[in-house]
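hey can u check if this looks right to u? its 106 residues, i copy pasted from the old doc so theres a chance i mangled smth
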Amino acid sequence: YQGSVMDRDFEALKIEGYETASSEYVTTWRDNLGTYTMIFRGKCDTTCLTRTMMADFLDPVSATKLRIKGVTTLTEEEGYTYESFVVTPDGSEFKNMELVAERSTP
């Protein structure tokens, strides 16, 4: 992924796969704005058009444990939307990022 966040260059690497032993999807996420690697685990809905995954990590600023929910939704245009939500200790969520990916043409 490449783009900008608050007028800063943003690059990220996302690697996804299916782990047969746990019957879960597993994703790793690294970006140039953080010093951590997030590991997400989750499952698809019944149509497998939407995948919801959770990750726990230490916030590099406050050193407190945070939970992130990632929702990937496939689109009709052979792309997808990825939404990231911070899950607070009381269970409420707020959206902190959205990525829209489209298939590139050679």
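Strands lie at 2-5, 8-19, 24-31, 38-44, 50-58, 65-74, 80-87, 93-101.
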